[in-house]
């Protein structure tokens, strides 16, 4: 089976070599998971909740170890990586709180009793990307486990180490053997074997729209359940009546965080023409002061890109002929560095239309609210977006008019484990996180019990 070399993106050193999982091994894993799931689903809800809380506590006891692993395999700044590990813990705690509250309904009927049950699906596959390896795996496995399922996680080829460690912590916390397994390997081999396996009841996929589309088509053959979290090309709309200082100070983080490798990156900055020049004056020092360098240094805000191949892809979006409006600095030497880059552009430019997934934003002027909404919606994606204004009515009007799953006003916050997250249009299908997260891993069953007496 193919081996995957895990490379530290900041140093280009090999961190580990991880063997892939063959389709035969996937088959054996599905069988083990199915056996564990039957036992797990039969436990009293309180026992399942307690086991998940023990798992959360085990993660809490290893936050620093997990964070440092994320720094080494993904190049994330250590401050961000600590947040990611904490997010896994919080999500497990939150999901544990849902186990006993997965309530059915009693619906009034004549001649009997009608009740609904939420039953687990069985074995769920979670296929995760490399950009947030740890949280995104947990967004799938925490609610799926809480709802009584077994989970097989297929991490991205470049970043399997944190997911493998989390599965180890689940065992140490006493979760049954086989209930949560991590199967590293190539997408078209290991991932595909999970998608095609008849014993897998649902696929949760986070990644590119191109692969998501293929997976959805394959799942259609068995009418397999699917949740898709795909790409984004998210607008950051700055109106003339906004607090411009605040909007400009917050803008760099919104497209440079995680080196722009973020499905929620606000990489299309739409600025009302009357304040365009002033906004650009404020944006420049904010971008140039974004601290780029060693991810292990707690002061670092931006690390390297994930790989050399990805850096080439990012570079292809930045025209070599036209100078960038703003260009930050990046370390020289080893590591897959790329500087913060702001382009002034047109709505039809490739960098303004496609997901760059790097520290590159395009700034585009607009005249009025109507044009702002039209530009915001002029993309195949609809994941997230921000708007900056002091006018509450406008904030509400524009939030309702922009076709995206997660919008923020005078903020760039998109992800909270207790609020729903997911995309419109080609950004995905279904929602993760939030109060309905567990329901996405259940089937609803309706049972009618007659109370008629025989005559
Ligand atoms: P990708 O689509 O290349 O890969 C994602 C995962 O799918 C990996 O584990 C990969 O091995 C696997 N895979 C690839 N081909 C497969 C196949 N044929 N069958 C089964 N599995 C397969 O995406 P990526 O480059 O790892 O991640 C970046 C993308 O993820 C971006 O487009 C980004 O926007 C998106 N993303 C979306 C969200 C969200 O919540 N909407 C969050 C993070 C990332």
Q: Count of DSSP helices? A: 14
Q: What count of domains describes the coordinates?
A: 2
Radius of gyration: 23 Å
Uncertain segments are none
Strand order of the largest sheet: 11-12-13-10-9-15-16
Q: Largest sheet, if any? A: 7 strands, mixed
Structural class: alpha/beta
Number of DSSP strand runs: 19
Cα end-to-end separation? 68 Å
CATH architecture of the largest domain: 3-Layer(aba) Sandwich
> What is the CATH level 1 assignment of the largest domain?
Alpha Beta
CATH topology annotation of the largest domain: Aldehyde Dehydrogenase, Chain A, domain 1
Shape: globular
Quaternary structure of the protein: single chain
Query: Can you identify the CATH superfamily of the largest domain?
Result: Aldehyde Dehydrogenase, Chain A, domain 1
Ligand inventory:
nicotinamide-adenine-dinucleotide
**Proportion of beta-strand residues:** 15-25%
Name the helicity range: 25-40%
Mean pLDDT across the residues is 97
């Amino acid at each position: 089976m193919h081996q995957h070399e895990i490379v530290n993106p900041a140093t280009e050193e090999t961190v580990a070599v991880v063997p892939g999982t063959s389709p035969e091994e996937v088959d054996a894993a599905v069988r083990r998971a199915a056996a564990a799931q039957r036992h797990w689903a039969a436990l009293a809800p309180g026992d399942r909740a307690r086991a998940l809380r023990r798992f959360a506590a085990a993660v809490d006891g290893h936050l620093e170890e997990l964070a440092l692993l994320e720094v080494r395999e993904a190049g994330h700044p250590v401050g961000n990586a600590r947040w990611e590990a904490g997010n896994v813990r919080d999500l497990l705690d939150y999901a544990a709180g849902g186990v006993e509250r997965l309530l059915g309904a009693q619906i009034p009927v004549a001649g009997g009793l009608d009740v609904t049950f939420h039953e687990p699906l069985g074995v769920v596959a979670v296929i995760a990307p490399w950009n947030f390896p740890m949280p995104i795996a947990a967004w799938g496995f925490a609610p799926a486990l809480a709802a009584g399922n077994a989970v097989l996680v297929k991490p991205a080829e470049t970043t399997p180490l944190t997911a493998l460690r989390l599965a180890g912590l689940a065992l140490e916390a006493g979760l049954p053997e086989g209930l949560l397994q991590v199967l590293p390997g190539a997408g078209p081999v290991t991932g595909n074997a999970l998608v095609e396996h008849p014993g897998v009841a649902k696929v949760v996929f986070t990644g590119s729209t191109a692969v998501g589309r293929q997976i959805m088509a394959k799942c259609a053959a068995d009418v397999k359940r699917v949740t898709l979290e795909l790409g984004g090309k998210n607008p950051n709309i700055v109106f003339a009546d906004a607090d411009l200082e605040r909007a400009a100070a917050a803008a760099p983080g919104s497209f440079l965080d995680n080196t722009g490798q973020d499905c929620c990156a606000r990489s299309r900055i739409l600025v009302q023409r009357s304040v365009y020049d002033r906004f650009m004056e404020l944006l420049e020092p904010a971008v140039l002061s974004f601290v780029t360098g060693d991810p292990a240094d707690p002061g670092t805000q931006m690390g390297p890109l994930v790989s050399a191949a990805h850096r080439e892809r990012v570079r292809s979006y930045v025209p070599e002929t036209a100078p960038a409006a703003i260009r930050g600095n990046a370390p020289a030497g080893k590591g897959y560095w790329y500087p913060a880059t702001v382009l002034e552009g047109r709505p039809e430019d490739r960098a303004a239309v496609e997901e760059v997934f790097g520290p590159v934003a395009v700034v585009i002027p607009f005249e009025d609210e109507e044009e702002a909404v039209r530009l915001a919606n002029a993309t195949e994606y609809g994941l997230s977006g921000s708007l900056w204004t002091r006018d509450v009515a406008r904030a509400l009007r524009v939030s309702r008019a922009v076709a995206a799953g997660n919008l923020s006003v005078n903020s760039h916050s998109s992800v909270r484990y207790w609020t729903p997250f997911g995309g419109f249009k080609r950004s995905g299908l279904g929602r993760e996180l939030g109060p309905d997260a567990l329901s996405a891993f259940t089937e609803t069953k309706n049972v009618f019990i007659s109370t008629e007496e025989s005559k």
